[in-house]
Amino acid sequence: MTPIERAARALCQFNDAAEEEGDGWKAYLPQVRAVLDAVHEPSDYMKEAGAGITRYISPDSDERAHAQDAANVWRFMIDAMKKQLP
């Protein structure tokens, strides 16, 4: 199950606890896309957190480059999830 399907199923269950099985979750795919669009840009705090990881990959880069690398990874991952939308 993809993160997209898990998100749609979670929204479906949140809004209609009776919907356990079936295809009702597919009606929530537009909402999932809207959320992914909304979180596409990471916050400064998220960039800083991710920069901690990218520092180990390219220790000679400056702090701004680390934050930008982390932000790009986030965007690429969100874009990859969006490609899984039916």
What's the gist of this structure?
By secondary structure, the protein is mostly helical.
Structural commentary:
It is a single chain. By secondary structure, the protein is mostly helical. The protein folds into two domains: 1-38, no CATH class; 41-86. It has four helices and no strands. The protein has helices at 3-15, 29-38, 44-57, 63-83. Helix 1 (3-15) crosses helix 2 (29-38) and helix 3 (44-57) packs across helix 4. This is TipAS antibiotic-recognition domain-containing protein.
- Content-based structural category: mainly alpha
Q: What's the domain count?
A: 2
Element-level helix/strand string: HHHH
Give the strand content. under 5%
| Oligomerization | single chain
Largest sheet, if any? none
Give the helix tally.
Answer: 4
